[in-house]
Design goal:
- The complex is a heterodimer of chains A (45) and B (301).
- Helix content of chain A is 58%, strand content 0%.
- Chain A contains two helices and no strands.
- The longest helix of chain A has 19 residues.
- Chain B contains eleven helices and 14 strands.
- A six-stranded mixed β-sheet of chain B has the order 1-2-3-4-5-6, covered by helices on one side.
- With 301 residues, chain B is α/β, with parallel strands linked by helices.
- Classes of the chains: A mainly alpha (45), B alpha/beta (301).
- At the A-B interface, helix 1 of A face strand 1 and helix 1 of B.
């Protein structure tokens, strides 16, 4: 985890999101994926 | 298919295998614990999911570094009891890094101790459900499956993924592995699982399709053991690259002279000078979109 952001360095998910993922429906996962893309853009811009 | 309420899957990645958390009335159990560099994250995930409860027990499908690297940290955090495949007991007791796979692969694992052993035929209760312990040799000679007959759920470790299975390591050392993989796939087919929870990737319901792909992959690899060696080299390099994120190309070359399994693969199956084999492996990862060369560096991709 990156302490400053609370995100996993590899998958860019928060602890909450990783825990929820296994029981989540596709809508949730798609929403998190969109959020991941936004986070990536923020970091790599 | 919905998971039983007592069961959660933490889908990780390639460096860390998936973790399966069971919250039962009496006790809590985690199957597999990820890679050592992710151990703090694994402890956080488990703590977050358990709330006030502790983690009573850790169970490992097999003892590769990506499946048991969090054992030590979780035991430290929760005082959990640890159960490992019985055939590995002596090696773990003595922490024999040569007999365990860590030195051979150039991977790391934090030393842990164990309290219980598991053997094919044993019965486990996890999440208030009954699980049978079955043998799954091939990828690892001592690997185990956990099968819940009442729910039709299989915890497969690296014996079956949605797209393939783990590297057939024994064949690299000239020990049998291909026919063991086939027997393990046959066993899984005979169970007819409704849901497979693989060691890596999302849980899946189409076991038949995955099995068909796995048999095809096995036919391809076993047709010529050089293919299995090539696959092993690529997977081992990719793993070290994920762990380190970037490596100097010169360092990659050094791996083929120092990491015992890479040296073995080179000597037995891929007779090239180490620099040429390193170049081949780097190109293969690049072609697969799994790595990127930038100047003198190889970057994970």
């Amino acid at each position: 985890m990156v302490p400053a952001t609370g995100l996993c360095e590899g998958c860019m998910r928060t602890i909450d999101e990783i825990v929820a993922w296994g029981r989540a429906d596709d809508d949730y996962k798609r929403a998190v994926w969109a959020e991941i893309r936004r986070r990536e853009a923020q970091i790599f811009d | 298919m919905q998971l039983p309420a007592s069961m959660r899957v933490f889908e990780r990645g390639w460096l860390s295998a998936n973790n399966i958390l069971f919250v039962g009335r009496i006790d809590t159990v985690l199957v597999d614990t990820g890679y050592v560099t992710h151990a703090p994250q694994t402890v956080s995930l488990v703590r977050h999911a358990l709330g006030e409860r502790g983690l009573d027990r850790i169970v490992n499908t097999h003892l590769h570094s990506d499946h048991c690297g969090g054992n030590a940290a979780l035991r430290y955090a929760f005082g959990s009891r640890i159960a490992i495949p019985a055939c590995e007991a002596d090696k773990v007791r003595d922490w024999d890094e040569d007999a365990l796979s860590y030195r051979a692969t150039g991977q790391q694992c934090a030393r842990f101790s164990f309290d219980e052993t598991l053997a094919p035929g044993d019965l486990l209760t996890m999440g208030d459900l009954a699980w049978q312990v079955l043998a799954a040799p091939g990828h690892d000679p001592h690997a185990l499956l956990f099968w819940c007959d009442s729910e039709g759920i299989l915890i497969a470790g690296d014996a079956l993924w949605q797209n393939g299975f783990g590297v057939i390591f024994p064949e690299l050392a000239g020990e049998p592995g291909f026919k063991e993989v086939r027997a393990t796939l046959d066993l899984i087919a005979s169970l007819g699982p409704r849901l497979v929870i693989p060691g890596h990737g999302a849980p899946f319901t189409d076991a038949d399709v995955a099995l068909e792909r796995a048999y095809g992959r096995l036919d391809y690899l076993s047709f010529d053991p050089v293919r299995n060696a090539e696959n092993a080299v690529k997977v081992l390099l990719k793993f070290l690259l994920i762990e380190r994120r970037a490596m100097a190309l010169a360092e990659v070359e050094g791996l083929f002279e120092t990491v015992p399994l890479l040296v073995l693969a080179r000597e037995r199956f891929l007779p090239l000078p180490s620099d040429e084999l390193a170049q081949w492996a780097v190109r293969a990862l690049e072609k697969a979109g799994a790595a990127q060369v930038q100047g003198p560096m190889l970057l994970d991709a």
